[in-house]
Amino acid sequence: MQFFGSPKALGLSFRSSKCDGERLRHGRPKLLLSGVFWLSQRLGGNLALADLKLLNVRIAADVHLVRSRHAGDRGLKRLAALAWGFSLAVFSAALAEQPADSAKAPDEDPYAWKLLFDGKTLEGWKVPSFGGEGEVYVQDGRIILGEGRMMTGIALKGEPPRTNYELQWEGMRVDGEDFFCATTFPVGKDYCSFVPGGWGGMVTGLSNVDYYDASDNMTTTFFEYKPKQWYTFRVRVSDARIRAWIGDEQVVDQPRGEHTFDIRFEVEPCRPLGMASWSTTGAVRNIRLRRLKPSEIANP
Asked: What is the CATH number of the domain that holds 192?
């Protein structure tokens, strides 16, 4: 809130037909005038509500004193009334600009989980073209990745963190025999993919590490995925390493160090963060992400 102008411009007169110079130089009337003048000079900028409230109380006291001690001075009484009215108007305007709920909202936790899928729409996601992809739609709180001739997937529209974060989601193989929610994610300036159930249905690992895919590198493992059953996956990327879990079981613990990470060309449309199925109908839900706490970064 801003006001500009002098007391004269605001309609306040300092002259009184019955107020001599001696009276203005002594006592509370002088404080009244100085209060109004201070207010008019300070209104060129922003005043805090507390400042206005304090000044309002001060002018109210001055007005009461003028009315009680100078009841016969009509000019001074008029000035007091103008000062009081002006003070009330300024304070009321400032009060009106305050938010309805002035209580300070608690600071948001920067390390809290953030949902990336609202369970109802594909808002925040895009459906890239792979060529021969199946249908992608939302049903019963999950994203269905319909079986295609090869890849079907989704990709995040926003820009996720590049390192020191954790991604979690739930995936299900609805129908088919290959991977159903291979997830591509950032690793610094590069990308990598966590592949659950590829190469015939059981191969699980990172693609690619040092140019070798999940079927043939140090992260290769085997896991039996039952059809129409939900699995919780979690990938943590820190400056030091990439770790992955299926439920509570850790299946990947890959140092970053001097290793090279990249992705197969088929999943490039899933960048910067996305999920895909291969000739399989998959479903994903409860996709969320959080940044790592400093203690987690220091002790990955």
From this structure: 2.60.120.560
Q: pLDDT digits over 33-79, tens only? A: 445 444 544 444 444 555 545 555 555 555 555 556 655 666 656 65
- Indicate the Cα dihedral angle 58, 59, 61, 62, nearest 10°: 120
**Which residues are bridge partners to 154 per DSSP?**
275
Which percentage of the chain shows pLDDT scores above 70?
65
Domain count, the chain: 2
pTM of the full structure: 0.67
- Given a contact cutoff of 8 angstroms between Cβ atoms, the answer to whether 241 and 300 are in contact is yes
Last residue of a domain, one of 62, 96, 130: 96
| Rg, C-alpha atoms of the chain | 35
**Nearest residue to 292 via CA among 247, 245, 243:** 243
Residue 108 belongs to some domain of the structure: no
Q: How much is the average pLDDT of 167-173?
A: 98
Of 33, 63, 96, which residue sits at a domain end? 96
Q: Are residues 58 and 203 in the same domain?
A: no
91 and 119, same domain (yes or no): no
Percent of all residues in the chain with a pLDDT value above 90, rounded to a whole number: 63
In this structure, what is the dihedral angle of CA atoms 92, 93, 96, 98, given to the nearest 10 degrees?
-110
Q: How far, in Å, are 8, 246, 275 from residue 72 at the CA level?
A: 24, 89, 85
Same-domain pairing of 183 and 239? yes
Q: Do 254 and 127 lie in a common domain? A: yes
